[in-house]
Amino acid sequence: MIPKVHDMGTDTRGLIAYLYGPGKAEEHIDPHLVAAWDSQAPDPGRDPKATYGDLQRLLDQPVMALPRNARPADHVWHLSVRAAPEDPILTDEQWADIARRMVTATGIAPEGDDAACRWAAVRHADDHIHIIATVVREDGRQARIRQDGKRSQEEARKIEIDYGLRRLNVGDGTAAKRPTSAERHKAERQGKERTPREELRETVRRAVAGATSEEEFFDRLAAAGLLIRQRAAPSGDLLGYKVALPDDRNEDQEPIYYSGSTLAPDLSLPRIRERWSETADPSHSNDVPADSSSRPSPSSPGTARRKAASAVWQAVLVIDHGDDAVVAAHIAAAGEVLDALAKTSAAHTRRELREAAWAFERASRSHVRAERGHDRALRQAARDLVYSGPALGRGEDGATTAMLIDMAFFLVTAAAHWHAKKEHALQATAARQAAEHLRAAYQAAAPVPLGVLYQRGRRLSQPLRQKQVAYLRQSVPELAEQILAEPGWYALAATLADAESAGHDPAALLAEAAGRRELDTAESVSDVLVWRLRRMADLPADASAMPEPDATTPTATPSAARPSRSRNDRPGKAR
Question: Are residues 547 and 455 part of one domain?
Fold first, then answer.
């Protein structure tokens, strides 16, 4: 049950006409009254003799009874109440009961109060109602409706229990503002996937990712094609900004601007400035050089992805064991990495990575205040991804993309566990949704590089392969048999051989990789270890250009690559 208090208004008749009219896109069906302050209230939907004006005059009567100078500037109160998509269709009688409970809970018409406000509940769809009221009571006083939004949410939770409806999580005030119904309908008419508000929020978040100054941030917004208005104090100091899409205009053909704070709580200019804090302890291992505000030297997408994978993995360990304020900063910066990765991804992974970043945006904010500065390694990783340019999805770029997605999956899952532990239900759910999209992106990115490694492992001579088995039994004896039974063992064997050829001790390296985080319940331990080892040993993620450690007859190709995750990392499973 989703109640929403809309902005106060002045036009009672205009709102009535909308509620009883066809809607923006003919979506209103059989508009009619289900309940009102008076059982004899006119119903323009079902009574052919009743008019919009009849209902408006009766609702406005207490307002009009006041002297003109005593009437409130905005006197029209509007609440919509919507059922969840999976809820059963409620009857008019049930919606009438819900409407009465809502006006009681919000203070519009407390139970037993004969001098309460006048109100009416209109149903024009199966899944929701609208309640219109005038806030002047019968006794001439104004209704006490402070915190009406919070009270409507509390009553909705009770209604869900009483009617056996889907139990929704309670909001915590950190979510981005939802698009209005008018914005949604406009986007639908124009055939757009997202509303202008949502498109702007995504574009601004991408512009923030890894940015280190106001100049750079606004340059990125301009490069993205947005219209920008800046708000300055008389002193000339910049106070805020607004952005608009060039083709999103009102009836007067003027651009429709949105301030950063109306796009999301963390996109106001003061909150963005917090990301540029340099307050962390300079000795912190995740810190980056003090001159990181300058534009980084261009590097290949593969190099940037490899560095980002290392920063992401370090962040996983921080989220597992760090202080709350530091963890909150890392989770917020993780959102920047996902935004940058989505912005620079190849076509075959772009959609899922974009959806992962979009979902994780909700998980990047909570009431735990982030201690900025400790997250600079992740923010630098996002910056490097942006300036390295887009990856084409082949060779080292494609393989390191799979490696980074694999690490990002663990990071997002660790964030979901942390939020769940802190009882941040909405954020935990959002992180799990992001993990699902990362899983799909990994499945698109991993088959080619893992297939190359699989073939290399199958071509190893029997003595060399037995040598890798010995390393395995020495390093992780408790998991050795499980790994040997996995199709991914051949890719891991090739990786161990590559590590030895590069001068590493395979057994020691494998023991370290396995000890970094739990592996007992991994669906494919070998897949997990392949990426950890290749990152730790600084081996090319794309093994196709490496010399063969040994060669015999090639054999069959591996089964489809799976995301390297543990069963406990699956959404809905606790570690």
Answer: yes
Instruction: Please give the structure tokens belonging to residue 205.
Output: 């978040």
Quote the domain boundaries for residue 102.
Answer: 2-163
**Cα separation of 468 and 91, whole Å?**
68
Query: Residue 259: in which H helix or E strand, if any?
Result: strand 258-259
Residue 282 within any structural domain of the chain: no
Crossing angle of the two packed helices 301-321 and 525-536, in degrees rounded to 10:
110
Is residue 91 a part of any domain in this protein?
A: yes
Among 163, 180, 214, which residue terminates a domain?
163
Do 385 and 436 fall into the same domain? Answer: yes
Question: 45 with 123, same domain?
Answer: yes
Q: Are residues 157 and 38 in the same domain?
A: yes
Same domain, 31 and 144: yes
Stated pTM of the model: 0.74
Q: Give the residue from 261, 277, 461 showing the smallest Cα distance to 373.
A: 277
Chain centroid, CA 563 distance in Å: 21
Task: Provide the CATH number for the domain around residue 150.
Answer: 3.30.930
Q: How many domains does the chain have?
A: 4
Query: Do 38 and 3 form a contact (C-beta atoms < 8 A)?
Result: no
Q: How many Å apart are CA 160 and CA 303, to the nearest integer?
A: 51
488 and 423, same domain (yes or no) = no
Residue 325, both tokens: 């304020």
pLDDT of residue 171: 63
Residues 6+ apart with CB under 8 A from 445: 348, 349, 393, 398, 401, 402, 405
- Asked whether residue 104 is domain-assigned, the answer is yes
Q: Which DSSP helix (H) or strand (E) runs through 5?
A: strand 2-5
Does residue 185 lie in a domain region? no
Lowest mean pLDDT: which of 21-30, 65-74, 294-303, 429-438?
294-303
- Going edge to edge, which strands form the sheet with 128-134? 2-5, 76-82, 128-134, 119-125, 32-36
Q: Do residue 131 and residue 26 come from a single domain? A: yes
pLDDT digits (tens, 9 = 90+) for 6-49: 989 999 999 999 999 998 767 899 999 999 999 999 999 999 99
**Separate counts of helices (H) and strands (E) for the chain:** 21, 8
Burial of 295 (0-12, 13-18, 19+ CB in 10 A): exposed
Burial pattern 237-264, b for ≥16 Cβ within 10 A else e, equals eeeebbbbbeebeeeeeebbbbebbbbb
Query: Rounded to an integer, what distance in angstroms lies between the CA atom of residue 335 and that of residue 378?
Result: 9
DSSP-assigned letter for residue 291: T
> What confidence tier does 483 reach under pLDDT thresholds 50, 70, 90?
very high
What interhelical angle do 92-106 and 148-163 show, nearest 10?
140
Residues 491 and 402 placed together within one structural domain of the fold = no
Amino acid at 258: Y
